[in-house]
Amino acid sequence: MELITLTKHLNTINVPRRGDKIYKEECVYSFDTPDSPTGLYVSLTSFLGLGQEHVMWYYDKTSYPVYLHIKRTRKEIPSEEQGDGPEKKITRLAIGTAGGFMPDQQKYTYEEEYNIIILPSFWSIPYPSNDLPDKVGLAVKTLIQMEGAWAVAQVEAVANTWDGEVRSESKHAANLKQLDNGKKIPPSGWKCEKCDLTQNLWLNLTDGSILCGRKFYDGSGGNGHAIEQYHTTGYPLAVKLGTITKGGKADVFSYDEDDMVDDPNLTAHLSHWGINIAQMEKTDKSMIELELDLNQKFGEWVSLQEAASKLTPLYGPGYTGLTNLGNSCYLNSVMQMLFIIPDFIGRYAQLSYEKKTLQIFQQNWHDPASDVNVQMAKLGFGLLSGKYSEPPSKSSTDDELQQGIPPRMFKVLIGRGHPGFFSNRQQDAQEFLLYLINLLNVFVTKSNQANILHKDEVTAYETQKKEAEAKGQKLDSNTLVRPRIKLSSCLESFGRSEIVEQFYSSALNEKTAAHKTTRLASFPDYLLIHLKKFTVKEDWTPIKLDVAVEMPDTVDLNFLRGSGLQPGEELLPDGVTPPPPVYDVVLLNQLTDMGFPPNACKRALYFTENRSLEAATNWVMEHIADSDFDELFVPPGVDLKPEDTFVVDQAALEMVTALGFTREQATKALKATSNNLERAADWIFSHQAELDVQETDGTATPTQESFRDGNSRYKLVGFISHMGTSTMVGHYVCHLLKEDRWVIFNDEKVALSENPPKELGYIYMYQRID
């Protein structure tokens, strides 16, 4: 009977072809997978995967009757068969990449069972079966063999994955000066020339001196004699003894460039001092190994993950973890934080989940994995329903806290078209948070939901620098102490008046100095505070400012409330056409030849009034960490108009429209950003009032945005922390105040927090106290 019925439905069955998206990893509307107790149903018509809760609804909507049911069973390998070798050592500050924190894949085996299901009766036909029609057999075989949509996206994402350990070639390597002072270095038995230390020793490649390195946080390391030698002599390159291998690899540090570097001539440089690398063996830990050891014992990794505490796992609604999909911890932390906001919960979880997906399905039934509303609802329901956060059975031998849910489709959809968020590289949580909120403002049905959030960027660097220097501490990448400052100091710096040079005043019709003061026009339900702990060195290398900021549980921000136009103040007149800025072409070319971005060079020449190359270069170096350093330069007080002769870049236009923007929006954005693809989407997000116009009597008027407002008192309800020294590597965790207790969300692990490290956060969320 089943085979006869199957034959009647042959016309509904499709054989997958190259380019078809096959969603066989998980349900497009839930986080049910082949590993779920009820398995996964994949339509042999559309190739969409459905959990058991959604497959009948999908059938009622489409009348697609035939599905491949995939049920995967995990079986633990007996301990005696797992092998008794040492645990794989972590060698990189990364997750899901070679050498990094890798999930244990050697404890289990997986068995898959396939059946062909015919709805609505759920008749089942085992696969493989000799009696299947050829078309059905080919369709199922092809579907099983082809890569799923997630796997295909992963291949695309990994194609340009950045290796966080790639080191730049030192500028000193090619022409390094080496003295002929008669020194020869023995193959072992080294000791610091200025103390008795025999570990953490560095050979200066110019004069052959062997001296100890810097002291580490835990008191180990050295006495800093190697860097003292550099300050005395200026000899820039040193190699760490004990890290030299037969392959010619070793830890080489450039004091001048203030970073670990690559020396392609290392073999020759070592030979000058009588060192034959063919006879060398690695006997000491590399700097990255030391950093990992220290982090795991003393540093942020222990504090932020609360590794020193016995964490009690939590389960149930609101306590579901998110699986790390290869350096996606930034996404996991941000989504956990957003889904404590009532508006997000109400929109994506507490409303009728089925009703919402039905409504969206009518508009976009062919590919719900590409609909922002559907995937946000899916993620919200997954995190808050408790369906995917159940405690293990008493008989379970699994030592994991919980499995967590993998946000595969959400990550692919949100990151599509973005070179960073689509990849498997580590990304900055604050940049992703702003990107996501802006994206929701465009794609989500218009409401006040996104306007509950404001963002303060608190620049802690100058405050931190002044307070550290007052204590006799040098604040740079060599700093080995963690300065402590107060949030109040950061906020005072944020709200302090600053002078804007070369401001064009339409009232005076000339350039003058202006005072700029930042205030908040309204106080939203939730306030996000971003501590700008990352900056860049002179060589554009990003570094993290290791500082502890004392964050209060409650704060009153009334002193930051804006009061609008004051008595005696007048708005600058409109309609005055300023003279275009003039740049010295010779100086501009010289600056760009030095490698600085064109917009930064224009800023430098504008604010130094084209005085000299030295003045412009100094300005660039002083402002290299500014957030708008490389943004399109518009002189202060000037509203420049793009040239009427602008021609849109068609390739860029197609890329922007592929993100879901209209052709008109994309054209305006590219025109405003001079065809800069990376900045075009950001421009759209920040100019919604201009783009969302309503025609009234033939006149286009911009829509008015409304923002919630209330009193200025807030309480701390969540924070995201970053571990590691660079935005490109490391790990993010999230702490949330739920039910009057702090909870740590460390990817799929969710537990009661015993010691929330509030002073080490990166992004903080405060809730207004009514």
Question: Which descriptors would you attach to this protein?
Answer:
770 residues, alpha+beta, Herpes Virus-1, Helicase, Ruva Protein, domain 3, nine-stranded mixed beta sheet, five-stranded antiparallel beta sheet, 23 helices, 29% helix, UBA, Ubiquitin carboxyl-terminal hydrolase
CA-based gyration radius? 30 Å
Instruction: Please give the largest β-sheet.
Output: 9 strands, mixed
Helix content: 25-40%
* The CATH architecture of the domain at 2-146: 2-Layer Sandwich
Provide the structure class. alpha+beta
The number of helices is 23
Protein name: Ubiquitin carboxyl-terminal hydrolase
GO molecular function: cysteine-type deubiquitinase activity; zinc ion binding
Keywords: Coiled coil, Hydrolase, Metal-binding, Protease, Repeat, Thiol protease, Ubl conjugation pathway, Zinc, Zinc-finger
EC number: 3.4.19.12
